[in-house]
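Before the break, one more example. Copy the sequence into your notebook; we will annotate it together after we see the structure.
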Amino acid sequence: MKLTVFGATGGVGRELVGQALDAGHEVTAVVRDPARLTVTGAALRVVRADLTDPEELRAAVGGRDAVLSGLGARSRKDAGVATRLTRSVLQAMEAEGVRRLLVVSAAPVGPAPADDGPLDRAARRVVSAVLKDVYADLRGMEDELARSGTDWTSVRPPRLQNKPVTGHYRAVVGGFPPRGRFLARADVAHAMLSMIGDEGTVKQGVGVAY
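Here is what the structure looks like once it is written out:
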């Protein structure tokens, strides 16, 4: 497949690029600073672009089978970037007639499992309060997805870890795995790539966790 990856220099984005190349896909990585992208490969094309300009992004998404995004705030002070930059990506995709989009969101944006224990519920409340601006941004991003004409999927992991890919995790369409507390960034990327052709995830939030 021909894939475009946004946020390619972030933790999930680098994994998306690397795993997609390893799987034999052609990858276009859209970055603001090419020097920060350490992944290499013969099937990799690196595009430097202003992510706030939909017109500048059209060449990067045109003719792609799917677009994957790891865009998001790296800290609370960056809150707002996920909504703003995803809006640009959506406009570029719709202008080029590209439909499939998968993005990284977060577990607190979606529904909590009904059978979560008191410790999990308490932890969720604390994290949601501390990172309320970041999660508000991700909810705004998901609102943009819902208003778009794309075939989107929002992948919602819990606390992220820097560990190798396992390919073994739980995924719940429209919900979240009970007592799911962690997931490696590498497995978030694995989940996103595996969902590209899964019609059951289209226009859905998917909770993923170990």
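The two ends are 28 Å apart (CA to CA). The mean pLDDT is 93. Try to locate both features in your own notes.
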